[in-house]
Amino acid sequence: MEKDSWQRMLKRSLKSPQEIADFFGLDPERVKKIARHFRVQITPYYAGLIKSRGDALYRQVVPDPAELEEDEGAADPLSEDEDSPVPSIVHRYPDRVLFLASHLCASYCRFCTRKRKVGDLSQIDPRHIEDGVRYIRAHSEVRDVVISGGDPLMLGDRRLEHLLRLLREIPHVEILRLGTRIPCFLPQRITPELAAMLKKFHPLYVNVHFNHPDEITAESARALNLLADAGIPLGSQTVLLKGVNDDPEVMKKLMQKLLTVRVRPYYIYQADCVKGTAHFRTTVEKGIEIMQALRGWTSGLAVPYYVIDAPGGGGKVPLLPNYLHSVGEDEIVLRNYAGELFVYPQVRPKRERRKRTAPCLAAPLT
């Protein structure tokens, strides 16, 4: 693979409303109207994976008039701007920060939670990177830095290495994480040179973003294996999206395929309440249904956390099916993945243990 092949592929992306309209047979004026509010771009690689108009991959990247027709939601539903002490940093949790290092993405997800910033150089400017590094240096409680954007792998190798080196030189920063959708949208960006460079900054983790089994291809597998071979632990963050993956079998297949390419499923996100994205949102009950179809029905490695990033800056809240049926003084009753009930005896103070008659057995109730 030639060193600059990913840059050339990126240049051939569908970038203008006219190009996207021509490629997918859409009204160019309607696409232009949407593009005034949020940037449009689709890599030729990802466009080539779309099988038909309206399919799961199409819905994620092709502009939809619904984006302008829906009034519910907010521009900044997670109140990130309120927790932003300097323009490049979101500091919400005690020991970690989000570092916005790039305003660019290879392709632009229509459900993006950061639509107000992503694609806009005035909102995420590389000139703010030094401010972010200074902020982290001054805050010794920060031990974990999540580098995001936009997509940090849209930075060239040298610029990304410079940022990682600055952060690794800070004594209290223990962990570096990259959040990226590049292995899904532009896997050609993952080169042996990039993997070798990232390897120098361990402990470094990469969280990737896949939403559908069809996104895991031979090319994306090659990219992910390069990163894994460099000793980089890989996790996946998936967004629950109507018409994309709101089907238990589709989600199970996705989680299983991720494991085959050495990616550990990490989060399934309930879609954020971003303005213009209501057509992507499912009910929370649908998410619980999907989790019930995973837990016990496939490997525990394939079961991520299902979370809502609480509106207003409350942070990630995990949601689980109700496996705890009842709690008593002497025993609890559990419901397993198949709906069967089991009794587990409560521990008692030592002086009372002789009185216990219930054995510690996982026996089903009948």
Write the layout of secondary structure elements.
Blueprint: H1 5-11, H2 17-24, H3 28-35, H4 44-49, H5 56-61, H6 66-69, E1 89-93, E2 96-102, H7 129-138, E3 144-149, H8 157-168, E4 175-180, H9 182-185, H10 192-199, E5 204-208, H11 218-229, E6 234-240, H12 248-260, E7 264-270, H13 284-294, E8 305-310, E9 315-319, E10 324-327, E11 331-335, E12 341-345
Parallel strand pairs: 2-3, 3-4, 4-5, 5-6, 6-7, 7-8
Antiparallel strand pairs: 1-2, 8-9, 10-11, 11-12
Helix pairs in contact: 2-3, 12-13
Describe this structure in words.
By secondary structure, the protein is of the alpha/beta class. It has two domains: 81-319, TIM Barrel, CATH 3.20.20.70; 324-355, no CATH class. Helices cover 30% and strands 19% of the residues. The strands form two sheets. The protein has a nine-stranded mixed β-sheet with strand order 1-2-3-4-5-6-7-8-9. Strands 10-11-12 form a three-stranded antiparallel β-sheet, with no helix packed on it. A hairpin with a 4-residue loop joins strand 8 and strand 9 (315-319). Helix 2 (17-24) packs across helix 3 and helix 12 (248-260) packs across helix 13. The model has no long low-confidence stretch (mean pLDDT 93).
Helical fraction equals: 25-40%
How widely separated are the two ends?
62 Å
What integer value in Å does the Rg equal? 23 Å
The low-confidence parts are: none
The structure class reads alpha/beta
Keyword list:
single chain, 366 residues, alpha/beta, TIM Barrel, 2 domains, nine-stranded mixed beta sheet, three-stranded antiparallel beta sheet, 13 helices
